[in-house]
Amino acid sequence: MKAKWLLMAALVASAGVAPAQPYPTRPIRVIIGFPPGGGIDIVARTMSPRLSEDLGQPVVIDNRAGAGGLIGTGLVAQAAPDGHTVFFGTIGNLSINPLLHPKLPFDIARDFAPVTHVASVASVLMVHPSFPAKTAPDVIAAAKAKPGQVHFSSSGNGGTPHLAGELFNLMAGVKMAHVPYQGTSPALVAIMGGHVQVTFGALLTGLPLVKSGKLRGLATLGRARSPLLPDLPALHETLPGYEVINWYGMMVPAATPRAAVSRLHGAIVKVLNTPDVRDTLMAQGADPVGNSPAEFAAFMKSESAKWHKVIKAAGIKVE
């Protein structure tokens, strides 16, 4: 009789404990710290339908622009660590902003867990068609002739286009004036409207503008020429050692369960290796990666060390 009552008690107790539901259990919000239309937004929206299929839940892109991506980063740092809020960040958000803003209310290494390096993105030096420069050396000559009067736009303080311009200034011995905007699209609108003469932008957004003649491409920013613009020299050919590669990666709040991180990582890698997604990204200048969380963490650390040297040498500061 005693055994019978013990068995009944065990059954009652177990009935009150609901089994853990497999992740995800509701829509996943992917926060981007920039407005729609930029390179990272294009990559996210290329991937999201396939991610939704694999994860069995809607993947919603949520653009939270402002302060060079700091607003979006902060939102995810404070989000519930359950894998349903993801930060899709750039090199600027994840490796450069902490160097330029030492008193941030969050810490990338402490408050976030890496998921994967999603893609590396080639960039290009572009000018407004009315600007007389036809080559990178022409831009250098114009900037030397009129210090501070040649302006370059960027997606915001501390972003890759900003750092690309400052590295150009440093290596060429010139001083182009930086004009930050709240995202890639406003920065491109500014140069297409002739408000600035120069910009450094991702091929994802710059390629259509160069091919249509709305902007003039002068050089790509990698060590080698891009197969998408084979007639353009690499800026490295004018400024030996110059190289700027933008990249995008997924992060979640630090206390997110390992099982959720693993499930999300697996889905992203699977989608990046899907032929149509991979081909679409590569045709626009984005090279899919999909490495492990540990590899991504090590990569971010190395990028921070690289850009710390540039920021210090160029004396770059932001308000």
Write a brief structural summary:
It is built from 12 helices and 11 strands. It has 319 residues and is α/β, with parallel strands linked by helices.
Tally the structural domains: 2
**How far is the first residue's CA from the last residue's CA?**
77 Å
CATH architecture of the largest domain: 3-Layer(aba) Sandwich
**How big is the Rg?**
23 Å
Number of strands: 11
Topology order in helix (H) and strand (E) letters: HEHEHEHHEEHEHEHEHEEHHEH
Low-confidence stretches: 1-19
Strand order across the biggest sheet?
2-1-3-10-4-11
Main CATH class of the largest domain: Alpha Beta
Question: What is the count of helical runs?
Answer: 12
CATH superfamily of the largest domain: Bordetella uptake gene, domain 1
**Envelope shape:** globular
CATH topology of the largest domain: D-Maltodextrin-Binding Protein, domain 2
Largest sheet: 6 strands, mixed
Rounded mean pLDDT is 91
Beta percentage is 15-25%
DSSP helix fraction: 40-55%
How does the helix and strand content classify structurally?
alpha/beta
